[in-house]
# Entry
Amino acid sequence: MFDTGSTAFMLLSTSLVMLMTPALAFFYGGLATKRNILGIMIQSFVSLGWSTILWFVCGYTLCFSGTMAAGTDFFGIFGNFDKAFLSGISATTALAGNGQIPELVFISFQMMFAIITPALITGAFVNRISFKAYFIFLTLWQFLVYYPFCHMIWGGGLLAEWGVLDFAGGIVVHTLAGFAALASVFYVGTRVDKNSTPNSIPLVAIGSGLLWFGWYGFNAGSELCVDAVTAMAFLNTDIAASFALVTWLVIEWGRKRKPKLVGVLTGSIAGLATITPCAGFVPVWASPIIGIIAGLCCYLAVEWKNVRQWDDALDVWGVHGVGGFVGTILLGVFATTSVNANGADGLINGTGVFFIKELITTVLAAAYGFIFTYLILWLINKITPVRISEKEEIEGIDSSIMGEKAYDEGCL
# Structure
């Protein structure tokens, strides 16, 4: 009944994307200061558990039940409740419109995206936000930000009907999370101690390597089967990341006269975030250009953030927000139906209409993610303080909030 090759590949891709959330915990944990390693890592792992529960209860149905074209969703913004608690879905239910894989595999694959997206935001407010506030934020952000955009673009909602494309999450994941991170920085405020010296660069490297590895499933798996587009997305992912890495290295080496490993790792993530919306819609020759632009734009965004003294501790906005934003615009430039018949023709291959749609949607997503995140934090602060006390911040979240330490300082 099902294509065993595509089903096996999608199970592998789902596993790779799941690995990205612990990888993010390692990446952020290594970048955090010594007093806040566990405080930032627990936020990723909690998302792994709680977001799964939300997805099972109603997240999946709100994203992928009903369509605007059929008039079976809620105004093209949310799906319906037909599949709440995964009702009516059995092991033999095929994914509609695909037929090659079980719907259960698709549910699992998309669940991993819902898990990692809010976890990305946590790097912006490291060592400042209370765990209780984070837990509420994680819940509200899924319902008010992630679910509607997931349905509107990937679930047959309003933006999908308009012709907007996003292959693997440039808008739904990176733009939303990145600009949500910026809103978090503005609302929560700056750290008492702005020292952001990484506690373990090797841990950052492990996290970065695992993220890159997982990104093959993130992007190539978004084709939902094994075909030529899958191979194209896989290769585009690696090429763009590599060109972005080298671009960041060259710029930073030239300006600071020293090659920095953290910069190299950050550059690779910038390239991965930027190619994400484009991976299965653009030809291979476009991926080096996208990678170079990613390295340049994200580096400049981080430097601009530093000049403005925005306390985005782990550069979530500069890397993910700007990367997703720029990548979606570049999709509007380089997309071609000669690569993917289900795609569109971009600015250099068409009339510019698709480019304008991508540009408008990206700006809308950035503004929506920023505004609603700010409002969510404002609302949470009415219920419980969002920010920890100055004393707790100075002591560090690991000790003051969690009662744990990442390292036993008595050991050699």
Summary: Residues 353-383 form the longest helix (31 residues). Residues 81 and 179 are 29 Å apart (CA to CA).
